[in-house]
Amino acid sequence: MPKQIKREKGRPSPLASKVKAKLYIAAFLLPSLIIFGVFMVYPVLQNVELSFYSWNMVSPNKNFVGLKNYLNLLSDAEFLQALGNTGVYVLLLLLMIFVLPYGVAYILGQLIKKGTHFYRAVLFFPSLLSFVVAAVIFNWILNPLSGPLAELLSLVGIESPYWFRTPGLVIFALSFITAWRSFGYNLIVFLGAIVEVPQEMIEAARLEKASDWTIFWQIILPLTSPTALFVFIMTITFGLSYVFTPINILTQGGPTQASTNIIYLIYQYGFDYFQTGRAAATAIVTLVIFMVLVVIQKKLEKKVHYEN
Amino acid sequence: MKTKTKSKQWLWHLILLILVLLVAYPLLYMLCSSFKSLKEIYNAGLSLLPREFTTENYDKVFSSLPILRFLANSLIIALIVTVFKMATSLLASYALVFMNFKHRDAMFYFFTMTMYVPFTVLMIPNYLTINKLGLMSTLVGVALPQLADAMGIFRMRQAMRTIPKSLVEAARVDRVGHMTALVRIVIPMLRPAIIAQSMIFFINSWNEYFWPMLILRGDNTSYTLTLALQTFMNSESGSAWGTSMALATITTLVPLVLYLFTQRYIISTFMSSGIKE
């Protein structure tokens, strides 16, 4: 202890060291802040600006149109359809990569006695594949003329539909491809939370003859709800972006916009129709929806945290 | 009672095995089809293994595309992105954990919020910025916006919080600089987390499609593998069945090999990503 005090005495003046400490903080944070500033904050602000203009991205002239881009969205059939499709995507994705992996993680983490490591290693692997690879594989597997699924269906006397050309089915097919690629990631995140649940609680419940079902609802669910909340929001926000690549490769939003969603529509407005202002307005609307979701998550998270 | 739990074990394993089949079949289908002739693929039905093993798809891919060039492009972008993301994430998370400053929590909140900004929101402005900088059709143009990563900061911060603060503080009292503390004390203790996160950065960049497509589409010599795969599939449609499976297999090899070596690290990193505070 005395040694330390001696050293303190030899230190430079408090003001100089304060400045130095500030410089260090800046030096450590600035590399990230500069990148985020230039390629995240500035683009969001630029989107706000562009959303008030009518512009085709190449012309030197931008026409100020005020809120017209936003108002037009309200009566734009494509936007409304994309919004509806987005709802369907969200529901399907929640089912396939939120509800399903939650249950499967419970089986993996608490119910089976052997094989957890094998299952989790295999089921996780597709999460490391490119969505392009997933789209290419399923383009052939779902091929209605001679793909393996068509063969399987013909065994039971069903003629394979044209998955990517049938409105209604196309969203299901694209969601399935996205889910196939992303299921394992959410599974592992859930598993991480479920194995942390104290064993004594589960064993106590077992002694009272609680069923697996009851244990899930009364112990696992409340204790893993912060993670569930996190995965829930990620499934919506990241999920809609994940679908982008399969849409872009397999359908380009078709047939007749039956598979577009709000994330993809921003791209279509911007790079297919060259309506930069409208794309920017759609982007801002999407961003606001996402931010509201995230803020709700953070609020709920705190509440859940205190309750436990 | 005992027989009841036993029969249920069967049910659980059955469910899991069905899922394993759903994961494995498409991958095996890709691998096996890449060694089949086009004629055989069309008539294969549900059978996986090739009757006549052929490498003609691979020959065709290598002769019709500069695959090694694409491979190098993917590799260069992924390496730049991984090294920079790791460096910026380590620096920022060190500051967030071991330095005291006003608005530290707000700063962390800001970093995590950036995770949720959809990329199509950033696409047009970033496209214009890269264009202005004269970096269109360059690998640097692809890498530049991706040199920092909120998820990386989030995970590195989480890992650093497991290090006792007193350890770094003691070193600081002994007049060890922040940079030295980071390199000599913190980084060695985080090796598994750093390896796992680097693998994830690398694989994600390797797999990326959309942003490279926007920046590189004007110049097909600077394509990445995923970009080549997409154009290949679309351009030759029906006849590219076997060849696109070959190219998809090549694209998958790198993540597969990395996964085989670092599987445990990667899974444990992801397992801890939902647990916060």
Most residues in contact: chain pair = A-B, 101 and 92 residues
The percent of residues in helical segments of chain A reads: over 70%
Number of DSSP helical runs of chain A:
14
CATH class of the largest domain in chain A: Mainly Alpha
Q: Stretches of chain B where pLDDT falls below 50 for ≥5 residues?
A: none
CATH topology group of the largest domain in chain B: MetI-like fold
Oligomer: heterodimer
CATH superfamily of the largest domain in chain A: MetI-like
SSE run of chain A:
HHEEHHHHHHHHHHHH
Structural class of chain A: mainly alpha
Q: How does the overall form of chain B come out from the CA principal axes? A: globular
Computed over alpha carbons, the radius of gyration of chain B is 23 Å
Mean pLDDT across the residues of chain A is 91
Gap between N and C termini of chain B, in Å? 40 Å
How many domains is the backbone of chain B divided into? 2
Label this structure with key terms.
heterodimer, A: mainly alpha, MetI-like fold, disordered N terminus, B: 277 residues, mainly alpha, 2 domains, 14 helices, 75% helix, 0% strand, globular
Can you walk through the features of this model?
The complex is a heterodimer of chains A (308) and B (277). By secondary structure, chain A is mostly helical. Chain A folds into two domains: 13-50, no CATH class; 68-307, MetI-like (MetI-like fold, Orthogonal Bundle), CATH 1.10.3720. Chain A is 75% helix and 1% strand. Chain A has helices spanning 2-9, 14-50, 68-74, 77-111, 116-124, 131-141, 148-155, 169-194, 199-207, 212-223, 225-242, 244-251, 262-272, 276-307, and strands at residues 53-54, 63-64. In chain A, strands 1-2 form a two-stranded antiparallel sheet. In chain A, a hairpin with an 8-residue loop joins strand 1 and strand 2 (63-64). Chain B folds into two domains: 2-58; 65-271, Orthogonal Bundle (MetI-like fold). Chain B is built from 14 helices and no strands. Chain B has helices at 2-33, 38-42, 56-64, 67-98, 104-114, 119-132, 139-143, 150-160, 165-173, 178-189, 191-207, 210-216, 225-236, 241-271. Chain B is globular, with a radius of gyration of 23 Å. At the A-B interface, helix 2, helix 4, helix 5, helix 6 and helix 7 of A face helix 1, helix 4, helix 5, helix 6 and helix 11 of B.
